[in-house]
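Because discrete structure vocabularies remain unfamiliar, it helps to consider an illustrative case, giving the amino acid sequence and backbone structure tokens:
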Amino acid sequence: MALEIREITKHFAARTAVDRVSLQADSGEFVVLLGPSGCGKSTLLRMIAGLETPDTGSILLDGREITRLDPRDRDIAMVFQSYALYPHMTIAANIGYPLRVRKRPPPEIAGEVEQVARRLGLSPLLNNKPGQLSGGERQRVALARAIIRRPKAFLMDEPLSNLDARLRLDMRAELKHLQHELSTVTVYVTHDQSEAMTLAHRIAVMRDGKLQQFDTPARVYHRPANLFVAGFVGGSPMNLIPGRAEAGEFAAPGIRVPCAAPAQDVTLGVRPEHVLFSAGAQPGYSAASVWLTEDLGSETLVRLKADSTMITCRAPGDFELAPGSPAWFQIPASRTLFFDSHTTQLL
């Protein structure tokens, strides 16, 4: 049951919310739309659901065009950030509501509800009301209500953003396992890049309504298509250092790295975990000073200053070195990426 989006565009007055976006989610695939607030990801999701109408382009589900169909005719289930449960109904009634609307017999509905509730650990709560449940339990009810329809596609609009950090991690694992079991094409919206990296088969990174990169989490992380993706994706952003490539070398204040790019202005990209760091002088290492440290428990982020260039690297969790202390670092040429400083694209 593939979902295909072809050249979708949506304007709101003079603003282009989604600009000629094309992508395809294959059968059973978990696709995450990732980007900052206002990038167009929720608008794109709402167009797939039929809650917004695109100005141009088309949407196909299982080979059938659904661009102009009413939401109820698309065979798509949507899970919202706000859960959208009926507070006066029991959990059983909330889960079974989509089947009641379709005039299914009550005994059949009860059987389906119990089956879905058992899968999501909701069986003991079926006689409760939503107000008696925790946030995580309410989110599972919203998922159960979507699952019971057995749709051709699931759409999820930041469904975990109202949960606390620990519960988000638990629900993220449950959701990934559930989607694997159901093997239903899923499009998931989030601004949280950690969520995108852990959930997605492929990530569609968006900015200002445009699709920046559509690829696997590993490719998005290790081979970002441009400077925006490089800086946006990653728990600790990629070091992005402007400089110049010339005579086989990248040069910036305090940094020299071999570079095969022709003579031009480039930006060097390197992940903090790939920067080699030492508290003592080492052959081939460059001198710097510690500007700032951030203790994260299992590791420490060390911000170095080499001449006027700032660079972040990772050190062990027990690392202790005061700001201003001398330090040394090396950027392995095999771990570097280079971006055209003018077009921002990966070279």
Observations:
- The first strand starts at residue 3 and ends at 12.
- The domain at 239-340 is CATH 2.40.50.140 (OB fold (Dihydrolipoamide Acetyltransferase, E2P)).
- The two ends are 36 Å apart (CA to CA).
